[in-house]
Amino acid sequence: MNASGSWAARRLLLGLAQTVAVVLLVFVLTEALPGDAAVSFAGDQPDPESIAAVRASMGLDRPAHERLAAWAWGLLHGDLGTSLTSGRPVTAFLADGFGPTLLLTGLTVVLLVPAGVGLGVFAARHEGRPADRLVSAVLLAVYAIPEFALGVLLVTVFALRLGWLPPTALGYGTDLLAHPAALVLPVLVLLARPVCSLARLIRAGMTDALAAPHTAQAQRYGVSGARLRYAHALPVALTPAAQQLARTVDWLLCGVVVVEALFVIPGLGTVLMNAVADRDIPVIQGLAVVFGLTTVLVNLGADLVTHRFAPRAEVAA
């Protein structure tokens, strides 16, 4: 096995170890949640016998290691568990909320790459000029605004003041494609910070590459500025951007919870928040595992792509 194959094998093993760690961490954290789920489901003013009966029916009277083993065995067979409140499989909740969340995150990622790369290239091309300073200042200012504050600001201006867009997706159900206006503000909120960080990364990578001694040497040999920018500096800047895109997906999985709650979108984030409010532990565990595994897989893919195009680059494991 060559060096690249050995590195890929080690990285895959690390991804497997991260997956196991995600499963253990999710179980431990849900075990540490305050309160008693059995008390919550035993009704008003329950007596100890009723609480014990509910706890036994939910399997909570078994030792933690037995419940962990049973849950992990179910995960290996694609069984995420059953909701305590509705009796529905957790996979049914995933199916219900998957569409709106995938639509939101998909639109964000599709728009993120051209917007972030375009702004970064524009700023690098005008380095040190007023246009560069203006773009950099706006990017820094937008990046500093928390998602919920930006969401409230956009709703106040574009929905309540101007009336151009609906303030929430309430009443539209899961078919958000039929109501594209309801997607504008949520996607803008999700895009804001990733675009800023990606554009700044592209700008920094291109300006460093254009300032390198070998670039000056290429200029002396008559290589055009456009070729240096787009055929040399931009690919150099895109390599670390792959890692940034992977971290962006991490952020999207967290940010989508805030955005869906703010704009009343019936996606996975809303399902997760409702499950936390109801202490529906199987649903919480199932969604947390799905989010965690998605993060592991995306980072694994980004590391493999980065290693393919820049084998000597340091890759965060």
Automatic annotation (TrEMBL):
Gene Ontology biological process terms, A to Z: transmembrane transport
Stored InterPro entries: BPD_transp_1_N, MetI-like, MetI-like_sf
Domain ABC transmembrane type-1: start-end pairs: 98-306
One GO cellular component term noted in the UniProt record for this chain: plasma membrane
Keywords: Cell membrane, Membrane, Transmembrane, Transmembrane helix, Transport
Record's subcellular location: Cell membrane
Signal peptide: none
Major location (coarse): membrane
Protein name stated in the entry: ABC transporter permease
Organism: Streptomyces nitrosporeus
Lineage summary: Bacteria, Bacillati, Actinomycetota, Actinomycetes, Kitasatosporales
